[in-house]
Amino acid sequence: MPITAVTSDPEVDVVVIGGGVNGTGVARDLALRGLRVQLIERHDLAFGASGNSSGMIHGGVRYLTSNPKVTRLSCLDSGYIQRIAPHLLFRIPFLVPVDRALGSSIFLELVDAFFGAYDRFQPLKRGKPHTRLTPAEVRSIEPGITGDISGAITFDEWGIDGARLCLANALDAHEHGAGILVHTTVERIVHSADGAVRGVIWRDRLNGMSGTIRCRVVVSASGAWAPITASLASIDPVHARVRPGKGIHVVFDRRLSNYAIATYAIDGRQVFLEPWENVTVLGTTDTDYYGDLDDVSATSDEVRYLVQGLAKMMPSLRRARMIGTYAGVRPTLYAYGPITNNLSREHEIIDHARHGADGLYSMIGGKLASYRIFAEEMSDIVARRLGCDRACTTHVVPLPGGDRAVDVSELATACGIDLVSATRLAYRHGSRSIEVGEQIRGTRRGADMVCTCEAVTDAEIRYLVRKEFVRTVDDVVRRTRLGLGPCGGMRCAARCGLVLADELRMAPREGLAMAMEFAHRQARARAVCLGPTQARQEALATAAFRAHLGLGAWEQR
Amino acid sequence: MAPRIVVVGCGVAGTAAAWSAARTGASVTVVGDFDGASRFMSGALDFQSWEMDDPRREVAGDARAFCDAIGLWRIGDQAACVATPWGIVRPARGHDRAVLDLAASGVRRVAVVRADRPDWDADLLAAAWRDDPWCVSRAMRFEPVSVDIVDGDRERWMPDAELAALLDDDVRCRDVARRLRDGTRGFDAVLTGPWLGIDTDAAAVISREASRPVGEALSLLASSAGLRFTRARDRLLSAVGVTASRGTVAEVIASGRGVIVRLQAEADAIECDAVVLATGGLAGGGILYDPSEMDVAPEMPAAPRDPFASSVRSDAVLAFEGRPVSIVGSMFGLDLARLTWPSSAHASWALDTLCYVTRDHACVDRDGRVLQGVWAAGQVASPRALGVLGAVESGVLAGRSAAAASAGPVMDRCDWTS
Lengths: 557, 418
What we know:
The structure holds two protein chains of two kinds. By secondary structure, chain A is of the alpha+beta class. Chain A folds into three domains: 14-49 and 163-241 and 345-385, FAD/NAD(P)-binding domain, CATH 3.50.50; 88-158 and 243-328, D-Amino Acid Oxidase, Chain A, domain 2; 408-555, no CATH class. Chain A has 16 helices and 20 strands. Chain A has helices at residues 21-32, 68-84, 104-119, 135-141, 162-175, 226-231, 300-311, 371-385, 408-415, 419-429, 433-442, 458-467, 473-480, 493-504, 508-527, 532-548; strands at 14-17, 37-40, 89-99, 131-133, 149-160, 179-181, 184-191, 197-204, 210-214, 217-220, 242-252, 260-264, 270-276, 279-283, 287-288, 322-333, 347-351, 360-365, 449-451, 456-457. In chain A, strands 3, 4, 5, 11, 12, 13, 14, 15 and 16 form a nine-stranded mixed β-sheet that branches. In chain A, strand 7 (184-191) and strand 8 (197-204) form a beta hairpin. The radius of gyration of chain A is 23 Å and the shape is globular. Chain B is α/β, with parallel strands linked by helices. Chain B has two domains: 4-38 and 228-405, FAD/NAD(P)-binding domain; 72-221, no CATH class. Helices cover 25% and strands 22% of the residues of chain B. Chain B contains ten helices and 24 strands. In chain B, the strands form seven sheets. A seven-stranded mixed β-sheet of chain B has the order 12-2-1-16-24-23-22, with helices on one face. Chain B has a four-stranded parallel β-sheet with strand order 9-8-10-11. Chain B has a three-stranded antiparallel β-sheet with strand order 3-7-4. The radius of gyration of chain B is 23 Å and the shape is globular. Chains A and B meet through helix 7, helix 14, helix 15 and helix 16 of A and helix 3 of B.
């Protein structure tokens, strides 16, 4: 239904819907070109696929044979991301053991040749060329691998914290004039009778406030929510459909291996175990998803499928301690017929002018590694339409914190925290960690470690509220990984809630209620991977919550 | 000859069982190997989860006598109100004597002592307690005050219980008392972290000296209340003539004429007339989650098995969600999603339902026959989460029954469906 926006409503050039890597990437690109942008996110930045990925800017090696163009683009852009956010990247060397059952040494030759071809793209992302290892060499570098193998190949990828990447993009957009609204949903995309997009009606999901923003262009970068977003403009959702593919990951309590290990699950799909930041991540599944996108969680079936896949190569994995799971839904390009694993990871921009919403675009598909190029393509279209002739600079302008390296030991001394904590701080914030450090020094009890698993201080939480669009405990968790360690938030959740409430000038109970909500959600994510040690830990955590917060009945008291 | 009773486990339930059996004249030995869930006690005394507890419920009979005997806990006629280190105020049937009862008469203006300790932010906590509806309704005020009671870096990083133990020293205790008295003038009561003594009633000494009630908020990890309990337990058991020995019990065999308790470390076994299993639940280590899927195997475990096991081998059968534990219809194990934490206040956590199948505290075997001389007490005998008082109640009953029944055999059979 056409509605006329009131002329006194705030006006921007572009509204971007979705705070994942594509949305924040587009917002940043357009803001750097001088356009006025408003980003609106229903939950939090990186709530969906971007914050629940495998955490790699990988070079698209799996598309090497089917679509080398994707591989080349991925590698090229991985190189750019390294240039603009060096602090967020860490090298993940991969090991691909070749099962002898897969057919003698000929198969190893094939794998060798395959990665030889991949080597051609490696210089684009400062990757190292592959090597070939004998079974003895494999056992000496990864003693846990006990399967019958004919050898192994190594290759090189880069790890990244997807949530920090989204945040860095949003932050830069904001610093270039863009507005960032989180926990705010778009209720309608308003267009005039002739179909021209006029603005959006939004509602804050935490406080219920609503309003209208006028604009000339709306970019839907809502990932798997794309058809829902399109329907808000009263167009048929099939015009923005995706094939949602659920992927889960299992998290182990420490780094279990020196290398990431890629192998095959029972159905022949590739699965992997990667040392990632402080933990080890096991991934991933790819199944059609019909459930609620706002509430995606792993099941024990999915966990067992992954564990089985890796345990075939590394049986001791069954005894390792799992401390959590996470799940997300990929916005894969739509196709009816192929199994999920064979679906394209390419991306596509849909202009909805021909569907009756002129000025509305949907970004469909894509992957973490190629977000920047996707955002550039989208921004070129928007800029042209709005008569802006400035070129994209997102591949050369550093993201916030990525401009220079930080001397970690200096940082540690300056703000009175230990070296490990300072290293983690510098990883998260890059050169901005110096600002956080100043806050640590300048805040009463600023250096108190609220979360000791991830070394998150009182002052950092306050900094996040002031600078990084944080409104709930879960938002803090996405930005810092607070409470995701082995203790299950037993130590830190309540304190984090209290600090947050203090900083946001809310009643302390509201902070505790947020902590409770986080604790419940995490308990569910942990239950599906419960093992012997973690079960006892879980019982202890539950007892602590019960004794000190109760089960939350006080909320109604 | 006096009946010989062995109690396995030395938490609250095991101690209560040993004490009540000893009172009947039995010869009692406690075998325990490590600190279980009781060592993590918060200092609040409840029958079960406090939100579901009835704060008016009476602590009577042997349970009351045990609480008096251990000499560590305060149980008033009315429910107490205690502050948690996570910023809320909650009712409790009783509490550790060092814990401050906010429901005591005349408590309106409470000083919260600032201390340079990483887990204690007095300003933040005072703001949270002030905001509690119960405190608001009583117009209670919490104000942070600076009183120097933590000395230097060493004490700053010490675990709570270790810091508390420093106040067992009389000189230090009186010094802290003077500082608190001078630093909290005009206040009705003083709230500190769980640092007020372990072997002595430092809270009472300080309260007297400061002439106003001085007490703790509840303990979190490295619990002071838990350490106080273990010390008081040792004193009590030796006072009533119970032999306490360290060791891990591997197996309990009911022979029909008596019970054989086999220890892990020794070839020898203890022969006795009855045994009370008070080994704790999942958190305490009495019940183990040990599913077949954890077997180190490339593809599939060698055999399916019960996902839960008691830490002590015996014929006694465990139940989960009201049914005897048995092999899961999967080579891999349970659907773990059902183990998740309940989100409503009245639902219970599936793992809390794990316990021995008992009939009046007597264990039964897979066929529902009462196992001669094998009894269970505490969390391992309860299908819901117990508080300290729940464990006491269960312990005194099991101990007394075990001692009484050892006089003569009891044959009985129980029905699953009942």
